[in-house]
Task: inverse folding
């Protein structure tokens, strides 16, 4: 799994890992994010081009969708 650990110790996932966990494509992820239907990525290094998602947010989304 393509992930990193954030400053708070929480696991952060890059787009490839999020796509693998959810089965969604890049465009779909960003479209759902724009609509507020998927967790927003964070920019842990303060760099706009570096986006990551909190593992806990993605897992919560998966649980909501599966319910």
Result:
């Amino acid at each position: 799994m393509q992930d990193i650990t954030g400053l708070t110790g929480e696991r952060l996932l890059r787009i490839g890992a999020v796509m693998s966990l959810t089965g969604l494509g890049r465009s779909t992820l960003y479209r759902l994010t724009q609509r507020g239907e998927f967790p927003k990525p964070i920019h842990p290094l303060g760099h706009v081009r570096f986006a990551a998602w909190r593992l806990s947010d993605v897992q919560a989304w998966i649980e909501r969708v599966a319910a």
